[in-house]
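User: I'll paste a sequence; please echo it back and then give the predicted structure.

Assistant: Echoing your sequence first, then the prediction.
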Amino acid sequence: MGWFGGGGKSPEEKAKEEQEEALEDRHEYNMDNYDYNNLTVDRNYEQQMLSNELQRRHIANVADYQDKKAADSWDYAMEIREVKYNAQVAAYNKSEQLYGAQIGLNQRAAGLAYDNAINVNKERQEQLAFAAAKSNIAYQKTHKDLRYQRHRNRLGIERARDFTSLQKEEATLKNQANRAKAAFDSQDMYVKSLQAKGKVSARGVAGRSAAKTYQSVVAEAGRSAAALADSVTRADSAYNLSMYGMDLDLQYKQADFIVSENKFHSDIDHANQSYDLQKQEEAASKLSIMRAYDHAISKVGYDQFAANVAADAKRMSKPSLMPAPPKPDAVPRARILDPMVPIYGPEPIEGVSYSGGASGGGGNAVTGAIGGAMQGAALGTAIAPGIGTAIGAVVGGIGGAMGLT
């Protein structure tokens, strides 16, 4: 005991006191560490809550901005849709106006073509009518000329017959006159011969002188009688020859009249056949004119229909309003999970080894800050790369300021 300096403490006591002091110091340190850990947990919790709130607001602002941009894009698409539709309607209306104008032009062209076809048909009908009238006039004139010629031929044969009869009567009268004159001359010569004989006898001449005188008177009477007989004979021969000539001339004239009659009938038949053929030709021409007119009318209708089809082919189809672009949905808001409310661990017990720890402490806070930054960056990048990078930078900056990096 004295070795310890009388009232001094033994080494065991000093060791025990030192151990107790060390335990107290350790306990105080553990309490300080405990308080510090709890304070860190509280600060990390509050910082995480503040970071989550900032992240919520930023993501909400970004989502609102995206909603507005989507709404603006949708409004712009609707305006473009309306402008396109109005342009299509304007083009359609213009097409309809042009179509109506083209149909009107086609109608006018068809009207002009119809008028032209009618005019051509009318002109051809008039030409055919004039030709028919001319042919009818020529036919009538031919008939009349042939009939006039026939009348002249008949008058000629009648005249020839009458003149032949007159000539025969004249020749007969001349022959009778010659015969009468010959008879009178014969009687006159006979009287003269008797008178000559009487004169010879009255003179008393006899013998050869009387005979010679008588013979000369008889001879003279014979010569006169012979001459008279010859004259009568020749007159009869001339009369017969004249009568034969007149009969022969009349026969020739009658034969010529028969020929003219045959020619008349032949010409009449030819004129009738020509007239009938002309009528058939006129009928065929009329049918041809009508066929040409019907064809022209059909061609005009076909051309008008073809022009209308071509005009219709150029028409624009009636526009229909395009379906509206899908109305943008609201951007989904991020759901950020707040950290659990921190639960403090048991306080250090003096004399018991203290390991420390608390729910929602520093490690959890760091993990929450980094996860929030990564989540914000990923979401922002998916929506808008620049915004997502900015979110990640902001959250990362906050974590660094808090000593969490």
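The helical segments are 11-203, 208-313, 362-383, 385-401. The chain has four helices and no strands.
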